[in-house]
Design a protein that fits this description.
- This is Regulator.
- The chain is mainly alpha-helical.
- Helices cover 60% and strands 6% of the residues.
- It has a five-stranded parallel beta sheet with strand order 2-5-6-1-7, sandwiched between helices.
């Protein structure tokens, strides 16, 4: 006879709460079948990457090479790789965009993924977890289900892509491992870079070299933009621009904005600049093979001089406010910007200036999931802008950076408050209201918007922290890092959390703030713990513990004991974990911190369950649930019910365990905590198996498969 839903007297219950019982497998199955999950996103293949330009000339040989290589590789059982190489701004990305729209998207019908690694590169290293996480989300994986580590992300990416014929385009590749990590199991990877990577060729990549335009192709391009141009004059513009498409476009866009001038004026202006490298510009060999880590020795220097000449000439003629913003973009840390940030840095007439930079193709729009439109300079223009910025006075650069750091410090604090609510923080509230940080609309609204903003600004925030550290603004460094915990923890950018934490710890030491150092070391320890590096976490906590006598606020002792308790649980030392969590609980009661009391009571319950002390655990968890309801701490309730379900299951009360797990699933679904819904359904299936209720187990497993399909995951077995 079933041990679920019967008390021997046949009484039926039709509600679900912590101790209520739903009588009978049929009613329980019906209840869980009615569990509301988000609607599954439309199964539309991803279509990422820049669009093809309408004006595109020559490149016949390169397009044919791309097509022929792709056709050959598409017939192979494994993945193929193309390696597209040329100097910066020569048109590599646009060449690939043209090839994608003409042939490649038909060859690889299951979608295309695109990433520009330059946007995610910090100190020469690309955040591959962020890249793979973006790919997984594009393939439909819910944010809560994106793993924290490179290996786990890569494994899930390969699993989801295994049955698909995907096209993956990776721009600004500098090192072979960056490309290898993103190689799909089937389909094609196109690695775009400025220099040949011999390791990729050894892996079987087909090389497609992209040189500057020759005279005929360049002249055709100029005359398409400027139909009445004399052939000889157009050819001279091509020579002065070294056949570089970006330089040609900038020159002709500059002319288009001045209808009273002619192409002869462009030639005269470029010639007067005197830095066009006449007779010395090498328009061939731009994709010379070099060793990885080396710089090209031919082609790029001459072309670069020509591009700088054009950009100098264009900037000499634009409005002062446009030139100011161009120079600001060369000064700002990070890779992208928004109009609000530019205004915070002192820019005026921002929309007009950005429009001028966009129309000249010096700036481009960047795709972003959050609300503000984001911009960045073309990578060639960015290098030029940074050279110009170095010529400005140190005081000017410092003043701009000071404004930028202030903006990000306050914005990140507001975002953190929305994401994690009333959690314990050392830093004071931001000095400006959120509305003061933007001119037209809030930077973000609500928890999801704040989290998306932090994620979109993640690379910029990392650069800002480093810039603040270099300038000795230690208070800003640790405050920014404290605010970023909401992002690091929620989106599992844990490796970044560990790396940046070193700067925050050093900042606390410079400020002689033992309380801050404890907090910073604990954040690093929590990230290391979640990454599975328990020894590193232990080391940070040992240093933090030595400072607790100087820290003052008892909650700092609480966070240290809590992290130590989590490590003890991970090492299967339940009694030690319980002792540590109880110390953390006492620290939070001393303040008192109501949320901290709930969390640490929940942790004590976890430790008791791990030690098989079921009845004690239930007493603690019942008190924790009551405290959470009193404090309005609703997000903790599903977590508490899950642990209660495990405790009840351990005591053999399977009917009550099921009721608690169903309550956890209900509450988590209501709050959008889909990872907790997954855990609750997995536990319910296990409980049904213990009760020998095959139909009920099937109902739970079916709902679990439905959830994982909604989250973009392959439907694994419950044991996964």
């Amino acid at each position: 006879m079933s041990s679920l839903g019967t008390d021997g007297g046949g009484t039926a219950y039709n509600t679900v709460s912590g101790d209520a019982v739903i009588l009978g497998p049929v009613l329980m199955a019906q209840h869980i079948e009615g569990l509301r999950l988000p609607e599954r996103a439309p199964d539309v293949p991803p279509s990422q990457g820049p669009p093809p330009s309408r004006v595109f000339v020559n490149r016949v040989q390169e397009l044919a090479g791309l097509r022929d290589a792709a056709v050959a590789l598409a017939g192979e059982p494994g993945p193929g790789m193309l390696h597209v190489v040329g100097v910066g701004g020569v048109g590599k990305t646009q060449l690939v965009a043209q090839s994608v729209s003409r042939e490649l998207e038909q060859l690889f019908p299951d979608g295309r993924l695109y990433v520009d690694l330059e946007d995610l590169r910090r100190d020469g290293v690309v955040d591959l977890v962020a890249v793979l996480g973006g790919f997984l989300r594009a393939l439909g994986v819910g944010k809560e289900f994106v793993p924290a580590g490179v290996a786990e992300c890569g494994a899930l990416f390969r699993s989801l892509a295994a049955g698909k014929s995907l096209l993956v385009v990776v721009d600004n590749v500098q090192h072979a491992p960056e490309a290898r990590t993103l190689l799909p199991p089937r389909g094609l990877l196109v690695a775009i870079g400025r220099r040949v990577l011999p390791s990729l060729l050894m892996d079987g990549a087909v090389l497609i070299g992209v040189d500057p335009l020759d005279e005929a192709a360049g002249t055709e391009l100029v005359r398409r933009w400027h139909a009445d141009a004399d052939y000889g004059t157009a050819a001279e513009v091509v020579r002065l621009c070294a056949g570089h498409p970006l330089a040609l476009r900038a020159a002709v866009e500059w002319l288009a904005a001045r209808p009273h001038l002619t192409l002869d004026d462009v030639v005269r202006d470029l010639t007067a600049a005197g830095r066009h490298g006449t007779g010395g510009v090498d328009m061939e060999g731009a994709h010379t093979v070099v060793g990885e880590g080396e710089e090209p020795q031919r082609g790029e220097a001459g072309v670069g001089e020509a591009v700088d000449t054009v950009l100098d000439s264009v900037l000499a003629e634009v409005s002062e406010h446009t030139r100011r913003i161009y120079d600001l973009l060369g000064t700002l840390p990070g890779t992208t910007t928004t109009t609000d940030l530019l205004r915070a840095a002192g820019a005026v007439r921002v929309d007009e200036a950005l429009g001028e930079l966009l129309s000249s193709r010096l700036a481009i729009l960047v795709e972003s999931p959050d609300r503000p439109r984001r911009f960045r300079l073309h990578d060639v223009a960015r290098a030029h802008a940074r050279l110009r910025a170095r010529a400005s006075t140190g005081g000017e650069r410092r003043s701009v950076l000071r404004s930028v750091v202030d903006f990000y410090r306050d914005a990140a604090a507001h975002a953190d408050a929305l994401v994690l609510g009333d959690r314990f923080r050392i830093q004071p509230p931001p000095s400006r209201a959120l509305a003061e940080l933007s001119a037209k609309q809030p930077l973000f609204t609500g928890r999801p918007g704040a989290l998306d903003w932090l994620d979109a600004e993640r690379v910029n925030l990392e650069h800002v922290i480093r810039a603040a550290a270099e300038h000795g603004w230690h208070d800003d460094v640790w405050r920014l890092y404290e605010s970023l915990w909401s992002l690091y923890h929620s989106r599992k950018h844990l490796a970044e959390c560990v790396a940046t934490g070193r700067l925050a710890i050093e900042a606390a030491q410079h400020e002689a703030r033992p309380d801050v150092e404890v907090r910073m070391r604990n954040q690093v320890a929590r990230a290391a713990y979640e990454l599975g590096d328990l020894d590193h976490a232990d080391s940070e906590l040992t240093s933090a513990t030595e400072l607790l006598g100087l820290a003052g606020d008892p909650r700092l002792s609480g966070v240290v004991w809590e992290t130590r308790g989590l490590i003890a649980l991970a090492r299967d030392r339940a009694a030690e974990a319980r002792d540590l969590f109880e110390r953390a609980l006492a620290a939070n009661r001393a303040v008192p911190d109501r949320h901290g009391v709930v969390v640490q009571s929940y942790n004590v319950g976890q430790a008791l369950v791990a030690g098989g002390r079921w009845s004690e655990a239930l007493d603690v968890l019942d008190a924790a649930a009551e405290a959470a309801r009193t404090a309005g701490d609703d997000p903790m309730l599903p977590r508490i019910e899950l642990v209660r379900a495990r405790a009840l299951g351990g005591r053999g009360e399977l009917d009550r365990a099921v009721a608690a797990a169903v309550a956890a699933a209900d509450g988590a679904a209501e709050l959008g905590q889909l990872a907790k819904v997954d855990q609750a359904l997995t536990l319910l299936a296990s409980l049904a198996e213990r009760a020998d209720e095959a139909p009920l187990r099937a109902a739970y497993e079916e709902k679990l498969r439905e959830l994982r399909e909604v989250m973009g995951l392959k439907p694994p077995s419950v044991a996964d």
